[in-house]
Amino acid sequence: MIKVLKPGMFSTIQDKGRFGYGEYGVPKSGAMDLYSAELANTLLGNARTDAVLEITMTGPKLKFEAESYIVICGADISPSINGEIIQNNKVYSILKGDILEFGKLKSGLRSYIAVKGGYKTEKVLGSQSYYKPITINDSITEGDALSFNQLTTKLKPSKLFSKLKPIDFSSEVLDVLKGPEFELLSNLQKDQLKSTQFMVSKLYNRMAYQLLPQINNDLKSILTGPVLPGTVQLTPSGRLIVLMRDCQTTGGYPRVLQLTESAINLLSQKKEKDKVIFSLVD
């Protein structure tokens, strides 16, 4: 069991998300940076579908009540065990009574804590991912007790390291595909999408990222149609909204671009005032 001494700014249990419920308006949810979450599980020898703890900008303070192994991937938020700084992307042995906490954000935005064997939390509609009101909680809170599968064997030294490479969070390039309404754009609008360096506005969360500056827009709204994480919508005001893991399942704004999976992972590690550019791929 892990006791939550401090929850951090916004920390949630996430796995790969819930699938098959879009027709009922249920978001997919899941880890925002799915690559980093899967990397953490891979380093521990967990299943890629095991749940992890996603933390945002400010990390929690956690006390372990049982032995285990952990890995932290994603953003560098200066993690430490019992006051001793540790590294991302490396397996650490945890003893009963150890305290894991975080400090200054150095790179990225979201970090992932995987524990050997995975967290044992309730599955709702096939997923452990927090999303209120589908789940009771929308984030962990002080005093929570997070259960995890207890160790039965020790990890072999060969499994303690990996050659898998983490994401380069400094990159500004987001690979995108043409959206269903892309061809309705004028040549000027297409050029603006391809050549403009956009900035993450103060409006960004697990549902969507809004970008600045606005671009010229005279397109009409469309009939409500399906949207996905990574769909880039162009609003009547000319603002671009990039839908993320907790997004709705339908929308009425033109869908001008679609982020690739790797681009969603990268954008999820961006914060206010960070810059991004779109790169159209075939």
TrEMBL record:
UniProt cross-references to SMART domains, sorted A to Z: AHS2 (SM00797)
Q: What is the lineage of its organism?
A: Bacteria, Pseudomonadati, Bacteroidota, Flavobacteriia, Flavobacteriales
Per UniProt, the keywords (alphabetical) are: ATP-binding, Hydrolase, Nucleotide-binding
Cite the Pfam families for this sequence.
Answer: CT_A_B
Show the InterPro entries listed in the entry.
CT_A_B, Cyclophilin-like_dom_sf, PxpC
State the protein's name: Urea amidolyase
Carboxyltransferase domain location, by residue?
23-282
